[in-house]
Amino acid sequence: TRSTWAGGQKAPIILWSGDVWSTWEDLRNQIAAGCHAAASGIGWWTTDIGGFYEGHGKDPAFHELLLRWFEFGVFSPICRLHGFRIPEGVPLSPPGQPVSYGPRDMFFIFTETGGDNEIWSYGPEVMEAARRLLALREALRPYITRAMHRYHEEGIPPMRAVAFDFPHDPAADAPDQYLFGDTLLVAPVVKAGATRRRVHLPTGEWKHAFTGESFAPGQHEITAPLGLPPVFVRSGVLPADFDIFDLE
Questions:
Q1: Whole-angstrom Cα distance, residue 177 to residue 155?
Q2: How far apart are CA 5 and CA 13, in angstroms?
Q3: DSSP 65
Q4: In 3D, which of 82, 83, 85 has the Cα closest to residue 114?
């Protein structure tokens, strides 16, 4: 469902954030949306990977946004690639200019044509990065199953604000990162062209999920190449079968 209200928590539904736009601002907003839904008791939540409107299938700038959104989607309770893509035959808007399609144009593009949206629709580089992320999601299945079970039994949402687990830690105030299950802290890259970002790690010992590097609590500047988002493993709560980060 794209909407719900007080009392919807008792229904076995998956809520998604609606037909959001394919913009970096909308990607940033999804972190808050997911954490707020969780705080409202709605933990089975998702977003349209890539956004729903105005992603142009042949635009390299959209490819970057799509993959960064994919990185976020892999570490969301529900992982779904979905959206309307402007097809190849429709010209791109001029560089630096907003998309020039009006509502009527968008309507006819959407209803009469629409672009492909499978992971192989965007060229081999995008497909390979998306394939690796999907393999990671599949490897996460047992971990996510445990998180979902805990949500069912105890009401602890799979995706939640850092302050949920660390209410007295100043680092928990960072609005652009979150916890995914009991073990992972995720800090998505939400700015165009960025290959680094600042991460705030709360109390405890943390290890970078992809490099194995250990980090103390506090602020860190983390390298984040496209396809490898900053994700940290929390020490002391690591399941025995959590060796999942070999993406080859």
A1: 21
A2: 12
A3: H
A4: 85
- Count CB atoms within 10 A of the CB of residue 164: 16
- Please report which confidence band the pLDDT of residue 225 belongs to, taking 50, 70 and 90 as the band edges: very high
At 4, list the tokens: 């719900």
Residue carrying structure tokens 């992982």: 79
Tokens of 119: 């992971």
As a dihedral over the C-alpha atoms of residue 81, residue 23, residue 120, residue 60, rounded to 10 degrees, the angle is -170
Strand ranges (E), the chain: 15-16, 45-46, 55-56, 85-86, 159-160, 178-180, 184-186, 196-201, 206-208, 214-215, 218-223, 231-234
CB half-sphere exposure, 199, CA atoms < 13 A = 27
The 10s digit of each residue's pLDDT in 25-80 is 999 999 999 999 999 999 999 999 999 887 888 889 999 999 999 999 999 999 99
Give the Cα separation of 151 and 63 in Å (integer). 34
* pLDDT digits 0-9 by tens, 82-140: 988 887 767 665 555 555 555 445 555 555 667 889 999 999 999 999 999 999 999 99
**Identity of residue 200:** H
CA atoms within 13 A on the CB side of 230: 24
Phi (first) and psi of residue 116, to 5 degrees = -70, 155
Q: Do residues 2 and 18 make contact, with C-beta atoms less than 8 angstroms apart?
A: yes
pTM over 0.90: no
Contacts of 55 (CB under 8 A, 6+ apart): 22, 62, 65, 66, 83, 84, 85, 86
